[in-house]
Amino acid sequence: MRLRAIEDHFGSLLQAWQAPPEAFLSLPGLGPAWLRQLQRFRAHWGAEPLAAFSAAVAGGRRALLPGDPTYPAAVASLERPALALRWRGQGSLWPLLARRAAVAVVGTRRPSRHGLAMAEALGAALATAGWPVVSGLAEGIDAAAHRGCLAERGRPVAVLGTPLERVYPRHHTQLQRQVGERGLLVSEHPPGASVRPGHFAARNRLQVALVRAVVVVECPEQSGALQSAGLAWQQQLPLWVVPADAARLSARGSNRLLSQGATPLLEPADLIRQLGAAPLAPRAGSLPCGSAAAPLAGVEGALLAALAEGASLEQLCQLTQESAPQIAARLLALELAGLVRAEPGLRWRRL
């Protein structure tokens, strides 16, 4: 709460970092001892604390911190926001997630064959249309949605209940690696942290905060997917549910959501039509993913020229006069082609 009060008072945490010590005296609870501690932090982290702190808290990996312009506002507004969003993969997806330009597909770890097939079809349909697919990389529905997304060369985003270096379940080693290569792995847990059952439930709030809509494929009456559904309703997000056999225990929770007002989802095409324009929809003349030999002209060429010394998303938008989502899509294509890399502080540099 103190961090949020400082941000509200100064407009941003970055502005607060540059403010003189006396500017904090009007805030309640910030006395001389707190100001001395602030000065010690400033001396240690320097003028660019986000980049320095990102490298430190991530243990050599990347992290997104409160106060960073691309830290998702919906995550920051949570009752318990993540102190750091550690990540691995395609950093160009973060501007899209900050706009909630993604869709979550969730459900039980023990689904029916029908549930598995629907989850995989949804992941594939969303990927083909150009929507990042957010889930938890758990057994069952989560894994099926990620596999469907990967099969169509989409952008899967897995919010983990473990540190980035842990794989759970263990037989998802290859799947987790593929998600990290094609999309994003996200965790709020530092390297080496112990794994607790509550961590898997807590990640639901992060999944919902990154998306525009939530799809529950199949879940019983006791399921984390129901928590995600409740959060979606609280945040007035569209909630879709795949109907299932009324006698099936693994679908009793999701079927009950239908009786409470969730929208039935009979086929993936219905969802795609309702979502509208996708942030990564294929367009003519775009750089093919993974093709470093593709001709680089126009905006892609200008981006690469600007990235020689490194640049932020805001700087690239000013240079090209294009919106952040448009630049994010181009950066993602260049990243996948092996031509640029994301650096701490969500800056990009040409390789």
Summarize this structure as a short list of keywords or feature phrases.
351 residues; alpha/beta; Rossmann fold; Arc Repressor Mutant, subunit A; 3 domains; three-stranded antiparallel sheet; nine-stranded mixed sheet
Name given to the CATH architecture of the largest domain: 3-Layer(aba) Sandwich
Unreliable runs, pLDDT <50, ≥5 residues?
A: 284-297
Class of secondary structure makeup = alpha/beta
Please tell me how large the radius of gyration is: 21 Å
Intertermini distance:
41 Å
Summarize it:
With 351 residues, the protein is of the alpha/beta class.
Can you walk me through this structure?
There is one protein chain. The protein contains 16 helices and twelve strands. The radius of gyration is 21 Å and the shape is globular. A nine-stranded mixed beta sheet has the order 1-2-6-5-4-3-7-8-9, with helices on both faces. It has three domains: 47 residues, no CATH class; 184 residues, 3-Layer(aba) Sandwich (Rossmann fold); 53 residues, Winged helix-like DNA-binding domain superfamily/Winged helix DNA-binding domain (Arc Repressor Mutant, subunit A, Orthogonal Bundle). β3, α7 and β4 form a beta-alpha-beta unit. α7 packs parallel to α8, α8 crosses α9 and α10 packs parallel to α11. With 351 residues, the chain is an alpha/beta fold.
